[in-house]
Amino acid sequence: MRDVTLDADAPTSAHETALACLRDAIEAVLPYRVVRDSVSLDGETLRVAEESYDLGDFDRIVVVGGGKAANGVADALETVLGDRIDAGAVVTPNPDESDASNGSAGSSDGGRIERLPGDHPVPSERGVESSRRLLEVLDGADERTLVLAAITGGGSAVIPTPAEGVSLSDLRTTTDELLRSGADISELNAVRKHLSTLKGGGLAERAAPATVVGLMLSDVVGNDLGVIASGPTAPDETTYDDALSVLDRYDLSVPESVRDRLERGAAGELDETPTRGDAVFERVHNHVLADGHTALSAAREAARERGYDALVLSSRVRGEAREAAKTHAAVAEEAAATGDPLSPPAVVLSGGECTVTVRGDGEGGPNLEFCLSSARELDTRAVVAAVDSDGEDGGTTVAGAVVDEGTVESEDEAAAALAENDALPYLRERGTLIRTGPTGTNVNDLRVVVVGGEAGHAADD
């Protein structure tokens, strides 16, 4: 992972603490480190978290999967299993990059697992081609095949396998509409699972009767297995009716082929996705190896090491980013005024997945809007930082930003930027952007509120 850097030239110690917390949080969920801590080989016994698998029971071991952390998962599995892996293919937005911590070049050749390209957040033709190769790796899987499945955030987009009658163009248009609507990830995936052949338990169905072991890095609030990467190895609790309800709830204009498929499914003309109790899941074992709370726990330790009292407010914050910002600003003000929930110097942390309902044509993402909205609300000396753990907030090239009570000088300018969903240029002009480059992982949003210590606007110190 590249360094966490701030555009500002002279941040205060509170700014430095916020960045240190974010840096340690992201490093704690780098997939190579996570998998090496959770997966080990002892003779013929493969241990994954608390479960063990006797490799003598299998004739073949294959690796498939995808998402933003899939490359690092593949690196770790090759380190642990080496030439015991017979074949593999993972799809990722950055197939030539690996965790900086593992010393691997991360190339798409030279190992047992192919690294193939896909795109996020909107699926692409190259993702479709890569997905075909992934399916080829699964061909011939039987009862003596062990399938290790890397299921990580972003997998829904990078592994597009459009269902019959739905074109890639239709899938792209629908995804765009959903992303702009403010629909949360569960709603988004309820639709995508019914427009794809691998999502919603489809990979487990394709691999059956093989033993499937899901290695998951969760970017989903509450770690719902059916939502992480649209649940390719998990039972699907949603239905065609649920997918139609999402379209209607947000009044989305989608291609005719999409609505036709969902309506046919709701009428019973198409098979539902496999759900709990289906035989395809009898030999499926899913393991969540890291999530947002893993990252926040590391950030809490970083704050304590720097002399701050620290707590994790929640790893499950969701809703409109600008509204969540008001709550976090209120927490900072309460801490400064009354010592609740912590007495300064203190660090309050949160994670989760906020959304943005797009009404303007500006540049930004949920974390950038969160920061700008926080800066408007702050009425005490505090520093607030927020990033998307993948390093690309809302499809931008920055991770997020760090602000304080002095960031906003003109309320009218800040309000206008929010109205146009144009937080990025506003924060760029004030030197508050946080850059990491693509981190190779994804456990969603991470937020830090620093109260006390050397907090406040750098220009005032």
UniProtKB/TrEMBL annotation:
Comp. bias (Basic and acidic residues): 111-130
MOFRL domain sequence ranges: 347-445
Q: Which InterPro entries has this protein been placed in? A: GK-like_C_sf (IPR037035), GK_N_sf (IPR038614), MOFRL (IPR007835), MOFRL_assoc_dom (IPR025286), MOFRL_protein (IPR039760)
Residues of the MOFRL-associated domain: 18-263
* Pfam hit, one: MOFRL
Q: Provide the GO MF annotations for this entry.
A: glycerate kinase activity
- Coiled-coil positions: none
Quote the cellular component terms of the Gene Ontology held in the record: cytoplasm
Presence of the UniProt keyword Mitochondrion in the record: no
Where do the TM regions start and end? none
Region annotation Disordered: where it falls in the sequence = 88-130
- Which keywords are on file for this protein? Kinase, Transferase
The name this protein goes by in its record:
DUF4147 domain-containing protein
